[in-house]
Amino acid sequence: MESDSNLMMISGVMILEKPITRSALEKLITERLLKFARFRQLVVEHANGAFWEIDPHFDIENHVHVVGLPGHGTYHDLQALASDLTSTPLNFHIPLWQMHLIENVNGGCALLMRVHHCIADGISLVRVMLSLTDDGVVPVPEEAKAKTTRTDSWIKQWVEPAQKLLAETFHLGHELVEETVDLIQHPSHLTDLAREGLSIGQELSRIALMPNEPPTCFRGELTGRKRVAWAEPYSLEDVRAAGKRLRGYH
Q1: Buried b vs exposed e over 84-103: b needs ≥16 C-beta within 10 Å?
Q2: 0.70 cut: is pTM over it?
Q3: Please, which residues have CB within 8 angstroms of residue 219's CB and are 6 or more apart in sequence?
Q4: CATH number of residue 23's parent domain
Q5: Gap between the Cα atoms of 42 and 221, Å rounded
Q6: For the chain, how many structural domains are there in total?
Q7: Which of 19, 212, 30, 182 is CA-nearest to residue 105?
Q8: Domain that holds residue 124
Q9: CA-CA distance, 207 to 216, in Å (whole number)?
C-alpha cells in the first residue's frame, strides 16, 4: 500500500512543558524502546517476500534528530513543522522510525515520532509512546514473554500466511506476535484460524462488492502532502451541552 502519495506512516506529537536534552532522550529510548526488537530491525525484500532482519549497523543517531522550531515557537509553528515531517517518507535503508526533538516550543519542547505502519498500528503505537513516560507502565518485550523452538516447515507454511492475513485485516500490532506464539505452541489452533480466515475472506469480498462512496468535500485525489492540526482541549460538559442543544445524540 506504500506509495509516494500515500505514506503508510503513523505520527504522534508529545508536547513537554520543560526542555530535555538529546542525551537524556537517547538514554530513555535505549532503555524503553529499543528493547522491542522491531525497532532495531530492517525490512528486507527478497523474491519470495519481505522479512524482518536485525540491522547490523544500527545507530540511534540515525533515528533521533534535534531541530529548533522556526517562527515564534507557537503551536501553529509546531503544526507547520509536523506537517512537513509527516509528508516526508522514512528511510527504508534503516529501521522504519524516527524521533524529532523539537526545541523552543512555548518555553518547553516537543517530540514528534514517526513510525511505519508495518511496525505497529495506532493503538499499539500509543502504548509504546506512553511507555516512554515515567507514569506509564513499561511493557514487557514480546520476545521475552516466551521462547519458542524452531517450528517444522509445514507449520511455517500455514502460520506465515495466517500472520499476513490477520495483520493486513486487523493491524493487530504486538497482539499478533502473542497469537503467533500461541499457534506455534499449539498447532491444533490452526483449524480455528482457518475458519476465521474463511470468515475474513467472505467479509473482504462483501466490502469489495460495495458501491463506490459518493463524492463529498472529504474525498479527493491523494497528493502525499499532509496537514497536521489539533485543537485546544474541550470540556466534556461543553461537548455534551452542545450535543443536546443540537440534538446530536440522546
Answers
A1: ebbbeebeeebbbbbbbbbe
A2: no
A3: 213
A4: 3.30.559.10
A5: 31
A6: 1
A7: 19
A8: 1-144
A9: 20
